[in-house]
């Protein structure tokens, strides 16, 4: 499978990549974590990052603080039909995955622009 994808970023929780030969998914990035895969545009990944930041805002919920493994945080996704229940550790891991993906995409774009000159 390594020959079929271009890996963008990964951590212990998930991976972001593009299929090399997937014409139907042209321009979209596959983000996979916790047995789920999302095909997202760059704008949708940025939107997802905003949803993650909103979910990380401190809430006055004693049950959230008492049980870090409880999937008591509702994380909105770029699809208005899908929200995810995550715990604090998963939220941190998804945050890292999305931030790392955006960083790598920006870096690749920057380097490609420099090489054109």
Low-confidence stretches: none
Q: What structural class results from the helix and strand content?
A: alpha+beta
Number of helices: 3
* SSE run: EEEEHHEEH
Percent strand? 25-35%
Main sheet attributes: strand count, strand direction, barrel closure:
4 strands, antiparallel
Residues in helix, %? 40-55%
Average pLDDT reading: 88
Spatially, the strands of the biggest sheet line up as 1-2-3-4
The end-to-end distance, rounded to whole angstroms, is 34 Å
Number of strands: 6
Q: How does the overall form come out from the CA principal axes?
A: globular
Rg calc: 16 Å
Explain the overall architecture:
This protein is α+β, with helices and mostly antiparallel strands. The chain has helices at 42-56, 62-66, 88-116, and strands spanning 5-10, 14-19, 29-33, 36-40, 73-76, 83-86. The strands form 2 sheets. The chain has a 4-stranded antiparallel beta sheet. It has a two-stranded antiparallel sheet with strand order 5-6. Strand 1 (5-10) and strand 2 (14-19) form a beta hairpin.
What attributes does this structure have?
single chain, 117 residues, alpha+beta, four-stranded antiparallel β-sheet, two-stranded antiparallel ribbon, 42% helix, 26% strand, globular
What would a concise description of this structure say?
The chain is an alpha+beta fold and 117 residues long.
What order do the helices and strands come in, and which of them pair?
Blueprint: E1 5-10, E2 14-19, E3 29-33, E4 36-40, H1 42-56, H2 62-66, E5 73-76, E6 83-86, H3 88-116
Antiparallel strand pairs: 1-2, 2-3, 3-4, 5-6
